[in-house]
Amino acid sequence: MLVKAIDKEAIRARALFVGHMTPEREGLLGGLRSIGMETLYFDTPHKARAHTNWCDFILYGAAGSAEAAPMRRIAETGKPFAAVLRPEDKGFTPLSIRSGARAVFVDEVHPEEVFQFSRTLNEEGNLRRELRWLRTEAREESGGWRFEGTSAAAERLRRSIQLAGQKYRSILLEGEKGLNFQLVARALHSQYPGTRHPFLHWGPKMRRASVLEKAIKRMEEKRGEEGDVVEKGGTLFIEDAQLIGRDHQKALAGVLRKKSLSPEFRVIFGCTHDPERLIQDTILKRLYRKETTCFIKIPPLRERKKDISLVAQGILDEFSSRIGQPRRRITPAAMEWFCGQKWWGNESELEMAVCRAFLVSEGNSISLDDLSPSPRRGGGGDIEGFFRERLSSVVTALGDGERSDFYDHTIRSVEKPLLELVLREAGGNQVQASRLLGMNRNTLRRKLLEFGLTKSSPSRRR
């Protein structure tokens, strides 16, 4: 019974033995293999270094007193290790502990003792995961990662979250800029794999190539938070996944398709463009399986007008709590104003308006007088206001100065990125780009040549 119990729990444990080998230690490794552990042996830390990411823990076989330096090198790998001493070297136990050993064994140690050491390390890892989750929940004021609202659109979204259940290993969230993707991702995480597992969020800082490469490498080698999530379960939420470059998408897809991933691991992609295009056009199509992938569309705020009052008051309560101020209410007239806006920027724009009103308001409520007109009035007015605001100080600075090419420079500064973005959206197809711009195709071709965009513009579709 004992062997069966050990076999069941230890089957995935991997031990790396480094150092001096003796017949007793060979017997120990054989015993560990017999109960399901995988083992590797190298006689020096230098030879073993390339394999430290493979193992769960290291056993260092000491031989004599000159072992402090090798054990410190083992400790520098970051892997937990235990020292294995000869009977005549038991006096070096304090030295082993000071050098970083988590435990000390003596030759002829029973494999079950090493197994218990492995299980203790595993339990410590689980406790650390739980502690990280508790800190996250305390920081984010867990209380629920639920998508609030009584509108039909909000109810459809809640139903989609429930239907996602345990069936889908990867989920693509589609929505407009400014929507609260993280709230929906956390609601999905609470549904499955559940709050006993960590929630890992790749936000804007992960878009730097060097940062992303290191994170993907940790996933491959099952190190750090990323490795912990894919090996033991949890959710990886990738915000604005469409902005990840093709090479990194390819590397990420290679990791996410491995069969060794935990069955309780889930990846959620947040996309502000059509997620089907993300699948068709990029390497993420390698992940697409109809039976394991689902799409969830997050409705924009203007389709949830019934929910605006609830969302606005929730933002106000959270903001006042965060800055340590008493709770305030929104007067009926002010709430009517909030509910009457289009909120093309969704929750992000609403949040800015609510927080701005809070900062200028006095007393215990926000009234209509505390609200400034929305900076987004729809249509071309938005663009005109944007440029007017940014050009005013520059034009003032020109004064009565000498003749300049300010006009041509300004037009070019706007026209070039506009053409580049539209051409990228059209996948490099100039006919499609000219239709999107409402521009003659020959005129477009001439301007592309003028700006040097005919060859370098990246393609988003094939």
Explain what the structure shows.
The strands form three sheets. A five-stranded parallel beta sheet has the order 2-1-3-4-5, with helices on both faces. The chain is α/β, with parallel strands linked by helices. The chain is elongated, with a radius of gyration of 30 Å. It folds into four domains: 2-120, Rossmann fold (3-Layer(aba) Sandwich); 152-299, P-loop containing nucleotide triphosphate hydrolases (Rossmann fold, 3-Layer(aba) Sandwich); 303-370, Helicase, Ruva Protein, domain 3, CATH 1.10.8; 380-451, Homeodomain-like (Arc Repressor Mutant, subunit A), CATH 1.10.10.60. The chain has helices at residues 2-10, 23-34, 45-48, 68-76, 93-98, 111-139, 152-164, 181-191, 209-221, 224-232, 246-256, 275-281, 308-322, 332-340, 346-360, 380-398, 406-425, 430-437, 441-451; strands at 14-19, 38-42, 57-61, 81-85, 103-106, 170-174, 199-202, 234-238, 265-271, 293-297, 329-330, 365-366. It is 50% helix and 12% strand.
Record the SSE blueprint:
Blueprint: H1 2-10, E1 14-19, H2 23-34, E2 38-42, H3 45-48, E3 57-61, H4 68-76, E4 81-85, H5 93-98, E5 103-106, H6 111-139, H7 152-164, E6 170-174, H8 181-191, E7 199-202, H9 209-221, H10 224-232, E8 234-238, H11 246-256, E9 265-271, H12 275-281, E10 293-297, H13 308-322, E11 329-330, H14 332-340, H15 346-360, E12 365-366, H16 380-398, H17 406-425, H18 430-437, H19 441-451
Parallel strand pairs: 1-2, 1-3, 3-4, 4-5, 6-9, 6-10, 7-8, 8-9, 11-12
Helix pairs in contact: 2-6, 9-10, 9-11, 13-15, 17-18
